[in-house]
C-alpha cells in the first residue's frame, strides 16, 4: 500500500534546514523538494517513464526562485504529458533545442545549409552564380536577420 504524504506548505519549505546528507521531502503526486548539504533547495518531478517504465527525476528549478505554487503547476502539466504517453523531460529538451535553433538560424546560416545540398544538383558555374547573387543582393541587408523574422 502506498504511503500517504502531507503536502508541503510555503512556511514548511522555508524552515527546512540542511543536514549531513541530502534529503528529499515529498509533496505528493510526484513533486519532491531535495534539500542539499549546501542549503540549496531543488524542485524535482519524479515519474515513471511512459515507455521504459523506469523512475525518472526531472528538475523543475530551485526554491525560492520557483515558488511552491509554480512547482505545482509545472508538475500538473508534466503529469498530463505522462498520462498522454509523452516523456515531459524529452519534450522540454526538444522545445528548448527548437527555440535555440530558431534564435540562431540567421538567413545566412540557413542559406549555407541549403547551398550545400543545392550545389551538388547544379553545375559548378551555376552554383557560383547563385552564391554570388546571394552575397551581392541579399546577405548585405538580411544576412544576419533571424529567419523567423523574415516574411514575404
How would you describe this protein?
This protein is of the alpha+beta class and 152 residues long. The chain has two domains: 10-86, Double Stranded RNA Binding Domain; 105-146. Helices cover 46% and strands 18% of the residues. The protein is built from five helices and four strands, in the order H-E-E-E-E-H-H-H-H. It has helices spanning 10-15, 68-83, 88-104, 107-118, 124-142; strands at 23-28, 31-35, 41-48, 55-63. It has a four-stranded antiparallel β-sheet, with helices on one face. It is elongated and about 75 Å long. The mean pLDDT is 87.
Annotation keywords:
alpha+beta, elongated, Double Stranded RNA Binding Domain, single chain, four-stranded antiparallel β-sheet, 2 domains
Topology:
Layout: H1 10-15, E1 23-28, E2 31-35, E3 41-48, E4 55-63, H2 68-83, H3 88-104, H4 107-118, H5 124-142
Antiparallel strand pairs: 1-2, 2-3, 3-4
